């Protein structure tokens, strides 16, 4: 099985790459701007015809798109998150119409929900900001493409290798910099999110790629449990043996204030893929802290 993986150097892409490469008989081809990529392409700027030629040469059985931008200018967010998936689908239709596409979406595509209700795939998508809007545009491009394509709508991923730009990455960096008895300053940590282990996300990718029958549309990937960002901070402090203080008197995130609660309904992923989260929250945070 030939699997083309886009975004293999990102947080979720690295975890997906590890699990896809462990599949018996699988050959994983890296695609993107990385030097030496098997399929050199930049979805944000790629010409559909040129990308179709590259896909025709690669002849993938499946394509996994983990490429995405979480921050940056409006131009970059739109190019990577909206145009990229649209160009990819157009090229796949032309060059590899039988290939299966698995695309990573985001819970930011949903708007706010009242606690304690879980968000299902049938709930309206009403993103609050540009990031969520561009991710939603990418999802619509994939689901409307007419090809064998599934969007995994990922909630808040945690785990080893979490980037400094993420909540957990910033907290871990703050604890390391503060030392065992120092002070870590953050914004308000009362917002509830559905935190899912990146390795569980990668397993959902594997199940989607290898499903015997096509599964199309959108599936939530979360845990079905909302936790506060404060619980993430406390869990990392325990894993680190941190004895200092976490002060929530810093600048907060406007998005967190506007979106106080989010929790996934993951029953569809269980029914259609046989997937459910397997990593305990404490294990995820301990492994995040222990990772280089």
Report on this structure.
There is one protein chain. This protein is of the alpha/beta class and 292 residues long. Helices cover 40% and strands 17% of the residues. The protein contains 10 helices and 13 strands. It has helices at 11-21, 48-58, 74-95, 130-143, 167-178, 198-210, 229-240, 254-258, 267-273, 281-290, and strands at residues 2-6, 27-32, 39-40, 62-65, 100-106, 149-154, 156-158, 183-185, 192-193, 195-197, 217-221, 227-228, 245-247. The strands form 4 sheets. It has a 7-stranded parallel sheet, with helices on both faces. A two-stranded parallel sheet has the order 7-10. Helix 3 (74-95) links the parallel strand 4 (62-65) and strand 5. Helix 3 (74-95) packs parallel to helix 4 (130-143) and helix 5 (167-178) runs parallel beside helix 7. The radius of gyration is 19 Å and the shape is globular. The two termini are 32 Å apart. The model has no long low-confidence stretch (mean pLDDT 95).
SSE topology sketch:
Layout: E1 2-6, H1 11-21, E2 27-32, E3 39-40, H2 48-58, E4 62-65, H3 74-95, E5 100-106, H4 130-143, E6 149-154, E7 156-158, H5 167-178, E8 183-185, E9 192-193, E10 195-197, H6 198-210, E11 217-221, E12 227-228, H7 229-240, E13 245-247, H8 254-258, H9 267-273, H10 281-290
Parallel strand pairs: 1-2, 1-4, 2-3, 4-5, 5-6, 6-11, 7-10, 8-13
Antiparallel strand pairs: 9-12
Instruction: Let me know the largest β-sheet.
Output: 7 strands, parallel
Q: What's the N-to-C terminus distance?
A: 32 Å
Q: Whole-number radius of gyration?
A: 19 Å
Please state roughly what percent of the residues sit in beta strands, choosing from under 5%, 5-15%, 15-25%, 25-35%, 35-45% or over 45%. Answer: 15-25%
């Amino acid at each position: 099985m030939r699997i083309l993986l886009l975004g293999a150097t990102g947080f979720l892409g690295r975890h997906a790459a590890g699990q896809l490469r462990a599949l018996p008989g699988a050959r994983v081809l890296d695609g993107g701007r990385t030097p030496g990529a098997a399929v050199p392409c930049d979805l944000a700027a790629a010409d559909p015809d040129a990308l179709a030629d590259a896909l025709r040469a690669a002849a993938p059985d499946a394509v996994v798109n983990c490429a995405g931008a979480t921050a940056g200018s409006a131009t970059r967010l739109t190019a990577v998150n909206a145009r990229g998936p649209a160009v990819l689908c157009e090229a796949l239709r032309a060059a590899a119409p039988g290939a299966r596409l698995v695309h990573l979406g985001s819970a930011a595509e949903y708007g706010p929900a009242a606690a304690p209700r879980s968000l299902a795939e049938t709930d309206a998508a009403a993103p609050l900001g540009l990031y969520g809007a561009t991710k939603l545009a990418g999802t619509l491009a994939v689901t409307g493409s007419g090809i064998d394509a599934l969007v995994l709508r990922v909630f808040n991923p945690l785990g080893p290798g979490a980037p400094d730009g993420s909540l957990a990455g910033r907290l871990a960096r703050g604890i390391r910099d503060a030392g065992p008895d120092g002070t870590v300053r953050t914004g308000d940590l009362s917002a509830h999110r559905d935190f899912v282990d990146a390795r569980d996300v990668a397993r959902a990718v594997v199940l989607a790629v290898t499903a015997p029958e096509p599964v199309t549309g959108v599936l939530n990937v979360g845990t079905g449990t909302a936790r506060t960002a404060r619980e993430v901070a406390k869990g990392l402090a325990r894993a680190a043996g941190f004895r200092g203080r976490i002060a929530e008197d810093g600048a907060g995130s406007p998005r967190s204030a506007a979106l106080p609660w989010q929790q996934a309904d993951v029953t569809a992923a269980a029914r259609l893929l046989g997937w459910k989260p397997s990593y305990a929250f404490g294990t995820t945070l301990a492994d995040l802290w222990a990772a280089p």
